[in-house]
Each structure stands twice: as C-alpha cells, then as structure tokens.
C-alpha cells in the first residue's frame, strides 16, 4: 500500500477519535463542562466559551481532515491534544488510585499525530494543497 493512503487513513482515524469530544460541546454542554472541570481544572466555563471552543475545534478538524494548511493544522491538533493529555497525567500513571486505562488511548494517538505531522509532505491523498 502506498504511504499516501496510510497517511490518509491515519488522518481519518485521528479525526474520528477527536470528533466525539468536540461534538460533546454541542450535544451535552454540561457533560463537556464537567470534563473540563474534573480533568483540566477549568471551572465555571460560560456556555458561549464552551460553544466557541467547540466551533474552533470543528474548524480545526475540518482543516485537518482535508489536509488544509498541514503545517499549521496538523501542528495545532498535535499540540492541543498533547496538552490535553498532559493535563490528565495523574490518570495515566499505572498504580495510582485514579489511574484510568481508557486514558491510555491518548498516547498512541499522539504518536500517530506526530508521525502525520512529520510526514505531512507525503500526505497527499485527498489533501488540499
């Protein structure tokens, strides 16, 4: 299989991984606020800010899935996801009381994002120039 197809598949899978979290801001704003409060230590997030973050993420994911401005969109997705994962570090350490194995899925996703960013010039299938 040519690399361009594998990179496209990676782009689609990363988008599908992130999309439910973004859509949660629109479908269940209270749940999104609860997650922000519990895991990211952001409390009292106004609805307009929550929705604004969701809109910005949707625009970013649209740029990402279409391969638009790869250097910027791929880097932003990688940086934002990595920062969010870093904020949940206490839930990623095995043996700790609040360890949650489901959070471990974020780690290989960061690897896939880094790979995609590194190989962005070869990611040409269904990708905007």
From TrEMBL:
Keywords: Membrane, Transmembrane, Transmembrane helix. The chain crosses the membrane at residues 48-65, 72-93, 99-119. This is DoxX protein. It comes from Hirschia litorea.
